[in-house]
Design a protein that fits this description.
alpha+beta, Arc Repressor Mutant, subunit A, two-stranded antiparallel ribbon, 4 helices, 47% helix
Length: 91
């Protein structure tokens, strides 16, 4: 008998279009580099003049439970942020 392994779909609603776009970018970056992008990486990818805008977006994703801080203070995905369906809504 074969047992199928399924990935849970966890809703990631309440994200603005920009937050959802950044979360998708963070997932893609993580898949390639095996680490989350820095604020500088996000700023460069989205054409922001300074990493402050990217840092603010990271803080909003933190507040919405998509990422969290590890014991060293670095951001890491939560299960919801890594595996959840990205649904854009009113954020």
């Amino acid at each position: 008998m074969t047992t199928a392994i399924t990935t849970p779909t966890l809703p990631a609603d309440n994200l603005t279009a920009t937050q959802a776009h950044v979360l998708r970018y963070m997932r893609a970056h993580f898949a390639q580099e095996h680490e989350l992008p820095s604020s500088y990486d996000i700023a460069r990818a989205f054409g922001y003049a300074s990493p402050n805008a990217a840092n603010e977006l990271q803080h909003k994703l933190l507040a919405k439970g998509m990422v969290e801080r590890n014991t060293a203070g670095r951001l890491k995905f939560t299960q919801r942020g890594l595996l959840g369906e990205i649904v854009e809504g009113k954020g």
